[in-house]
Amino acid sequence: MILFGLIIAAYLIGAIPTGVILTRLAGGEDIRSAGSGNIGATNVYRVAGRKLGVITLIGDCLKGAVPTLLAQQTFNLSESGVALVALAAFIGHCYPVYLGFKGGKGVATALGIFLVLSPLSVLCILGVFVLILWKWRYISLASISSAAAIPPLILYFEKSFALFLATLFIAGIVIWRHKGNIELLRRGSENKFNL
After folding, report:
1. Does the global pTM surpass 0.90?
2. In this predicted model, what pLDDT tens digit does every residue of 130-143 receive, in sequence order?
3. In the Cβ-directed half-sphere of 40, how many Cα atoms lie within 13 Å?
């Protein structure tokens, strides 16, 4: 019963549309009708500025980290239980009930989850992300590459098949939700990221 309640709570927390709320509070336009139309930190950064972009990034990370941390540390769930709660938070971000199940790509929320599940894996992945972003200036390429690399790292560092499966699912969804970016990268028309 506790696990079921945590899964529902994690989904509802994950579904909170941080970027939409912040841009509206700041008096800006609906982020879904600007830039790429995505509700995530990258689009908020490009459309509404650095400050709101960074706050959106932090908020989306917390949506993944807080439920996962509560499941792991406060409720002492098994690794399978923690994995299910983490998945619920991630799915909430990607398919939020508050926005008609049309959400973000899940990168920042996944980052929050992985920071709890395997900080060492995140350290490795941040290196991959920064190097790819520095070399090619595409956040989408850095995100896709990082998503592809993290499942084996989780398995190596955490030695948990349940966490590996959850990570594999999350990585697959992140990559799949970047399919439009993959096509733009293939055409050479993807937007480069400028600080």
Report:
1. yes
2. 999 999 999 999 99
3. 24
